[in-house]
């Protein structure tokens, strides 16, 4: 072997040894880092009912450093997050967030829907086989039995051999029950009227825990029986419209929708404690109760991961009454920001900063009041569904000699009577098409799809994709209609939601805490991605109906 060849061989061996050892050390270090990761002591899921993404930017100048801004600066912001199904309501929203899938799979197709087997309307969480706990009313006859798959909260419980706790809280029963899943240690909601207590169902327990009884008995709820005035000088609320407009609703007993709202004076005429739901005080009450749960249940006190699911419902009630452009909605979000500061400070103190993981999202967004849009020369309007149903009946009599072909109209879906259609020797697919063409001719209808299309086609984008994700073969109807953009079926004051349009689907999604990178993305994410992202971060199994995917840039 020549000298040059020997020299080259020696250099090659040295080079390989150095860099091989370097690579081996890097791989060893990487494995050590991965193996050293311990899951958070607590996962906190926060859902803000009816929150549009642009509330984060519209009101940002008035947010404190420790609330929304803390999540935005120290967490991960998914700026292009959307619901990928319709209808966009509270029940399916909470179910989709926590199951990692859509109504096509989890079965919660709306808040209420027509049940084809029972031939009756059903509520998403109603269950008369259970009794109320903490109230003499029937408000506790509830369970998650209509949700057909597991949730991320269920998976945490299963992974920890049921040692990890799940507690779910919301003013609305469905906002607590569906996030809590099938295995929650407790789900609590607020019963107003003349009681003003946090209650639950015998599905979870026979009696309220001591800490809940203590919270109810202290009557801290009565601290919120006071005037609702703006948190800051109302003249600085330039991010919203005028205080007195025709686009806003009224409490009974009010002559104008203006600040201050005298709650003590309005109390009896507006359902007593129920009036708090339609004020930011409902969110503050929820925050108080969530902090009490944190301490009362000893959440996040050991290495076994617990889960606290909190839903803020008052944002939805306020949006429905006053609209997304109102002074009331701005004040509600500024006060919610304060409530988040309280919750985050409590988590830092009781669990430890860096020891918990948190996400914040919404169950749907909302539209501007169409009357306001119209007055600003933007195409919008209102659909009269009673008139539409009358027109459909006229058509059915003309085409088939009977109106009995349609059994129900629910959530913008027509349910046909398959037995009658068969007896009349009419092809079901043809009947769906014929009626769909008739409905499409109505001026406020944008597009129509049939069940046959939902069954036979595989849509991958646009409105039909969103409808198909919301279409459950056993529970959904025969004809699905979509109103034109900007058109709603709702009173002419206040905002609403439910459509597959972008103003109802674009919602915030923020991740924060242990295992979460700092950053943001404008790449589209979808609501069913939340649960698998948390599952991947925790290193546990995905919920068993998962169709979403982990959002890779979020996880360290």
Task: Give an overview of the whole structure.
With 556 residues, the protein is an alpha/beta fold. The protein has helices at 3-36, 55-58, 68-74, 90-99, 103-106, 152-159, 173-180, 210-217, 263-266, 281-296, 314-322, 327-352, 370-375, 385-400, 418-423, 428-440, 451-456, 462-469, 502-505, 530-538; strands spanning 42-48, 76-78, 81-82, 112-115, 120-123, 132-133, 166-170, 186-191, 197-201, 306-312, 356-362, 381-382, 406-410, 413-416, 445-450, 479-483, 487-488, 509-513, 519-521, 525-526. It is built from 20 helices and 20 strands. The chain has a ten-stranded mixed sheet with strand order 6-9-8-7-10-1-11-18-2-19, with helices on both faces. The chain has a four-stranded antiparallel sheet with strand order 13-14-16-15. The longest helix is centred in the first third of the chain and has 34 residues, at 3-36. The two termini are 51 Å apart.
How much β-strand is present in the residues? 15-25%
Counted by DSSP, the helix tally is 20
- Which residues sit in consecutive blocks of at least 5 with pLDDT less than 50? 1-20
Give the distance, in angstroms, between the N- and C-terminal Cα atoms.
Answer: 51 Å
Number of strands: 20
Proportion in helices: 25-40%
**What characterizes the major β-sheet?**
10 strands, mixed
User: Radius of gyration, Cα only, in angstroms?
Assistant: 26 Å
Category from helices, strands and their pairing? alpha/beta
Rough shape?
globular
Strand order of the largest sheet: 6-9-8-7-10-1-11-18-2-19
The average pLDDT value, as a whole number, equals 94
């Amino acid at each position: 072997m020549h000298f040059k060849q020997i020299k080259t061989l020696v250099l090659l061996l040295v080079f390989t040894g150095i860099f091989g050892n370097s690579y081996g050390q890097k791989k060893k270090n990487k494995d050590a880092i991965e193996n050293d990761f311990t899951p958070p002591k607590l996962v906190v899921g926060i859902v803000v009912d009816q929150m549009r993404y642009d509330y984060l930017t519209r009101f940002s100048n008035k947010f404190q450093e420790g609330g929304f801004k803390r999540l935005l600066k120290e967490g991960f912001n998914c700026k292009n997050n959307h619901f990928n199904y319709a209808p966009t309501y509270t029940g399916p929203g909470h179910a989709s967030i926590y199951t990692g899938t859509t109504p096509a799979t989890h079965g919660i197709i709306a808040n209420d829907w027509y049940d084809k087997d029972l031939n009756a309307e059903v509520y998403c969480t109603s269950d008369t086989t259970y009794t109320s706990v903490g109230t003499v009313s029937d408000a506790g006859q509830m369970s998650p039995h209509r949700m057909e798959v597991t949730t991320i909260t269920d998976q945490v419980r299963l992974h920890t051999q049921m040692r990890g706790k799940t507690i779910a809280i919301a003013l609305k029963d469905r906002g607590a029950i569906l996030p809590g899943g099938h295995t929650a240690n407790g789900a609590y909601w607020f019963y107003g009227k003349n009681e003003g207590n946090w209650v639950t169902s015998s599905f979870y327990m026979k009696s309220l825990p001591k800490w809940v009884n203590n919270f109810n008995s202290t009557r801290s709820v009565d601290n919120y029986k006071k005037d609702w005035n703006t948190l800051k000088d109302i003249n600085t609320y330039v991010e919203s419209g005028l205080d007195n407009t025709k686009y806003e609703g009224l409490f009974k007993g009010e002559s104008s929708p203006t600040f201050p709202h005298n709650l003590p004076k309005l109390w009896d005429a507006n359902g007593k404690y129920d009036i708090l739901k339609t004020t930011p005080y409902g969110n503050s009450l929820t925050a108080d109760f969530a902090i009490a749960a944190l301490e009362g249940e000893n959440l996040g006190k050991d290495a076994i991961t617990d889960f606290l699911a909190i839903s803020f419902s008052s944002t939805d009630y306020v949006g429905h009454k006053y609209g997304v452009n109102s002074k009331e909605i701005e004040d509600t979000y500024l006060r919610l920001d304060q409530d988040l500061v309280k919750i985050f400070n409590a988590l830092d103190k009781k669990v430890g900063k860096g020891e918990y993981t948190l996400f914040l999202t919404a169950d749907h967004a909302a539209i501007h009041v169409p009357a306001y849009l119209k007055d600003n020369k933007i195409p919008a309007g209102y659909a009269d569904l009673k008139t539409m149903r009358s027109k459909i009946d006229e058509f059915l009599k003309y085409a088939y000699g009977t109106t009995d072909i349609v059994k129900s109209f629910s959530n913008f879906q027509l349910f046909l009577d398959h037995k009658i259609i068969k007896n009349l020797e009419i092809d079901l697919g043809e009947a769906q098409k014929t009626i769909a063409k008739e409905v499409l001719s109505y001026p406020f209808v944008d597009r129509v799809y049939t069940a046959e299309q939902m069954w036979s086609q595989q849509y991958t984008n646009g409105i039909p994709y969103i409808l198909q994700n919301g279409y459950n073969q056993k529970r959904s109807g025969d004809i699905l209609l979509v109103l034109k953009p900007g058109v709603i079926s709702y009173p002419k004051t206040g905002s609403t939601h439910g459509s597959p349009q972008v103003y109802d689907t674009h919602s915030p999604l923020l991740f924060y805490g242990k295992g979460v990178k700092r950053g943001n993305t404008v790449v589209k994410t979808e609501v069913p991605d939340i649960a698998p992202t948390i599952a991947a971060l925790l290193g546990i199994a995905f919920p068993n109906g998962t169709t979403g995917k982990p959002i890779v840039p979020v996880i360290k």
